[in-house]
Amino acid sequence: MKKLISVFLTAAMSTMLFGLDIFTYAPLVGNVKTYTQTDFEVTTKFGNYFRTPKAKYVHVLNALGQEIETREVSAKDEITNKAVYKYDASGNVTEYAYYNAASKLLWKVSTTWKNGKKVESSEYDKAGTLKAKIIYTYTDDKLTDESGYNGDGTLNFKIIYKYNNKGLTEKQFTYNADGTLDTEETITYTETSKIESITKFDAYTREITSDVFRYAQNGTLSEITTYNADKKITRRITIKYDTNGNVAKVSEYLVAEKFGSTQNDLINITEYIYKE
To answer: How far apart are CA 263 and CA 228, in angstroms?
Structure first.
């Protein structure tokens, strides 16, 4: 995907991990004021796991539960970068600004809304020069098209959405600037409208992968298992929760056949600590 707008690319300054926006599937519970996210890289030596901190972020929320600031911090808890969010009276994000440790603006994304729907997102560099833009198109109140442009107005990508009879996203097609297909995603749902699987076709590599979502008896997301085109498991993500029901730990495993058996190699961990 060729998206240019930095707000979609800067996964480290959001809740993104391992390609997954965890709070889309497991929303925050309770009156959380801040939470700390620590990412670890895991290595194995002589059968023992060793984890090394990769990054640490402090997320600050307002009284309405909206994230207003995300700080990337060092091992000494010194701010190295930060993102600041602004909202309109309806609670829609209108600006996402990214700053360095000296609080100097690096870039920002401004978003306009109309009747509760996102109309346009524009990225500007520190000098205020337009670098990229996304225009959103709706049909019958459903988002059907995202068109991304470079700063000079040339088309960069296009995303087309299709919906099922319940109004849930069923297909997502991403196209390159020349109109060729980049990726195609197919989404299925449970009887209670929770995501059941996301199958992705990459037109460049011709690879097909499928993420299957598994839920605990209480309805919380507990695992995401990735399968290749041969229906073999290649990755597992497990989600653990604290006593309040918020995500406490997310672990990523690579799965492969080794020495005649299936091995689950832990490679990444993300932990969350909350303050109310």
So the answer is: 16
CA distances from 164 to 59, 87, 91, 147, 188 (A): 35, 31, 28, 22, 9
- Indicate the DSSP class of residue 12: G
| pTM, two decimal places | 0.89
**Predicted confidence (pLDDT) at residue 5 exceeds the cutoff of 60:** no
For the chain, give the percent of residues with pLDDT over 90: 81
- Please name the amino acid found at residue 63: A
- Region of 30 (left: φ > 0; alpha: ψ -120 to 50; beta: rest) is left
H or E element in which residue 129 lies = none
Sort 83 into a burial class: Cβ within 10 Å, 0-12 / 13-18 / 19+: buried
For residues 265 and 159, give the distance between their C-alpha atoms in angstroms, rounded to a whole number.
34
Q: In the numeric block, which tokens belong to residue 205?
A: 């590599």
Please state, in angstroms and rounded to a whole number, the distance separating the CA atoms of residues 169 and 188: 9
Whole-angstrom distance, CA of residue 199 vs CA of residue 218: 25
Q: Are strands 195-202 and 208-215 parallel, antiparallel or unpaired?
A: antiparallel
Average pLDDT, the chain: 90
Find the helix or strand (DSSP H, E) in which 166 lies.
Answer: none
Give CA angle at 17 (16, 21), nearest 5°.
40
Cβ burial 33-52 (10 Å sphere, 16+ → b, else e): eebbbbbbebeeeeeeeeee
Mean pLDDT for the stretch of residues 173-186: 96
Please give the Cα distance from 210 to 208 (Å, whole number).
Answer: 7
